Amino acid sequence: xxxxIESMDRLINSFTKLPAxxxxxxxxxxxxxxxxxxNAVKEFASNLVLAKQSIKYCSVCxxxxxxxxxxxxxxxxxxTICVVKExxxxxxxxxxxxxxxxxxxxxxxxxxxxxxxxxxxxxxxxLNRINQGGVQEVIMATNSDVEGxxxxxxxxxxxxxxxxxxTRLAQGISMGSDIEYADEVTLTKALQDRREI
Length: 197
Hints:
Elements: H1 6-15, H2 23-35, H3 38-54, E1 56-57, E2 64-65, H4 71-75, E3 80-84, H5 87-94, E4 102-105, H6 123-131, E5 137-140, H7 146-159, E6 165-168, H8 184-192, E7 195-196
Parallel strand pairs: 3-4, 3-5, 5-6
Antiparallel strand pairs: 1-2, 6-7
Helix pairs in contact: 1-2
């Protein structure tokens, strides 16, 4: 007969909903929370709720923001737009520190096998930004897997007739890997050696 504590089971189950958290890791997290000081647990829970309530998407680029328009869109040079798959890719690209342009977050990639076409990601919003004028270059910084490459090529075909320079991050980021896991040196090199597509 299994000795089970319902509230502990619920806590463990909650942790398993996080990406890459299996049963054993969820149990370790739950035990750590139970062993925390009650005030620390309240602060942890409060931070979770506050983040969920405060963070939204920037109305211009689609990155995470606590304001209607994110600080990057407010302060950066809008002649260059770096297109990424998800907000966490912006975090990775910002580690480069020598990129002074803006971003556009697609919130996905074209993936017919997963039922995602061009209308299911933020391509129209990118085109709207470009049609407002002033954009000189679009850097495609989607992952170098099949879906990321297909999305880059699709967007490049849309932008070429508009006279926009479209570049792709250089190799250095290995095929099939995710931008978020690349180190700063690799991302810097890939950004500097980007190629036109």
